[in-house]
Amino acid sequence: MKNLLQINASLFAAGGQSSKLGNAMVEAWRKAHPHGEVSVLDLAQNPMPHLTAERLQAFLTPAEQRTRTQRDIVAFSDSLIEQLRAADVIVLGLPMYNFGIPSTLKAYFDHVARAGITFRYTPNGPQGLLLDKKVYVFAARGGNYAGTPLDEGKRDAALTQALARIEALAA
Q: Rounded distance, CA 77 to CA 23, Å?
């Protein structure tokens, strides 16, 4: 059975443009895979805790040396990673606010991007370890960009960085 993970980050929930685009993709996928499973992670409704020194230290501490709090932090991260691993398809609704991705999405990446678990370092840079994933990114932004240097997607640094994070995980 196929599994799809939909990640939405719009503050406007289902009313956000990136969510609407993602929802349309998910509905088409459901029609093509009537027995497939869909999981939805709404980062605006259920925001991720932001990375702190305590959280990072929990990831870096060997398992046998972790405190109870550190074990809880790692278990939370592990559950997000398992959700990603279980997905054959990932649909990301990516809004852009104030020239960047929502901080809750960055916090999500901070919890699932773990060296040796979801990616590894190589001489050529990070290499994803979550293989054989189809990832669809539906990006939307407001503002008046037409005719400006920001009108070209290749110059949108925040979007490029977000896509690089995804690529580093799901190579």
A: 25
Residues 105-128 pLDDT 10s: 999 999 999 999 998 898 988 888
Per-residue pLDDT of 44-71, as tens digits, reads: 999 999 999 999 999 999 999 999 999 9
What CATH number has the domain bearing residue 151? 3.40.50.360
Residues 167 and 128: beta-carbon distance below 8 Å: yes
Average pLDDT, the chain: 87
What b/e readout covers 85-123, taking b as 16+ CB neighbours within 10 angstroms? bebebbbbbbbbeeeebbebbbbbbbbbbbeebbbeeee
Cα–Cα distances in angstroms (integers) from residue 51 to residues 21, 54, 56, 90, 107, in the given order: 29, 8, 7, 23, 6
Number of domains in the chain: 1
Enter the pTM of the model. 0.86
State which amino acid sits at residue 36: G
| ∠ CA 35-36-42, rounded to 5° | 140
Side chain identity at 103, as an amino acid letter?
A: S
Domain span at 152 = 3-169
How far CA 121 is from CA of 115, 140, 168, in Å, comes to 7, 31, 10
Q: What is the CA radius of gyration of the chain?
A: 17
